[in-house]
Amino acid sequence: MKHQKTRHHRPMRSRAELARSGPVATAVALQRMSSHMTTVSIDIYLTQNDEPARDLLSHLGWLIALGAEISATVKPGMPEAKRLHAALRTVIQMSIDNAWQSSQAGTLDVAANEAKALLIAHASLGLELIASADWLASRIRDGQARLSDVAGAEIYSPQPSGTHA
User: Fold this and answer.
1) What are the boundaries of each domain within the chain?
2) DSSP string for residues in 141-162
3) How confident is the model at residue 157 (pLDDT cuts 50, 70, 90)?
4) Are 63 and 115 spatial neighbours (Cβ–Cβ below 8 Å)?
5) How confident is the model at residue 105 (pLDDT cuts 50, 70, 90)?
6) Which of 30, 68, 89, 97 could disulfide-link 84, Cβ–Cβ 3.0 to 4.6 Å?
7) Intra-chain end-to-end CA distance of the chain, in Å
8) pTM reported for the whole predicted model
């Protein structure tokens, strides 16, 4: 009778554990993010005005949504959070209009890079938010996104006196 080898399977690691994995995995992830951002930045500037650009808007929506949520969590009410939130609403409005606005290219490129930096700095928090970013990106890609999918500027207004959050 042959001896059967038994395999010892490691338990599945959570996304947070994977985010804190070794330096090689981190380096590979950073390289892939950098490569993807280069492609997105080129597309931002080469996309013609009034093109539908659903894929580009979906990518931007995903990344900027993550950045806006991370910023709202770690730097609530700060200018960076407000800029990213405004950029996200701009992306959604372009999706609703089914038209890229090339006049927004510079602003959205800056927002995407701010969001990327936040995602890199707070990777484990970003991993917790991926499902909601995926949902929004799919709505943008499918032409179903609405401004009501994202909170408005009222989230930055101070609570009126006498009310409780």
Assistant:
1) 33-144
2) HTT---GGGS--GGGGSPPPTT
3) low
4) yes
5) very high
6) 68
7) 70
8) 0.77
Those residues with Cβ within 8 angstroms of residue 54's Cβ, 6 or more apart along the chain or in another chain: 95, 98, 140, 141, 143
**Distance between CA atoms of residues 108 and 3, nearest Å:** 61
Dmax (CA) of the chain:
80
Taking residue 111's Cβ as centre, other Cβ atoms within 10 Å add up to 25
Question: What's the rounded Cα separation, in Å, for the pair 117 and 131?
Answer: 19
The angle, 0 to 180 degrees and rounded to 10, between the axes of the packed helices 54-74 and 123-141 is 150
**Contact between 18 and 25 (Cβ < 8 Å):** yes
What region, left, alpha or beta, does residue 77 occupy, with left being phi > 0 and alpha being psi -120 to 50 degrees? left
Per residue in 115-141, pLDDT tens? 999 988 888 888 888 899 999 999 999
| Whole-angstrom distance, CA of residue 145 vs CA of residue 11 | 38
Please, what is the average pLDDT of the chain? Answer: 83
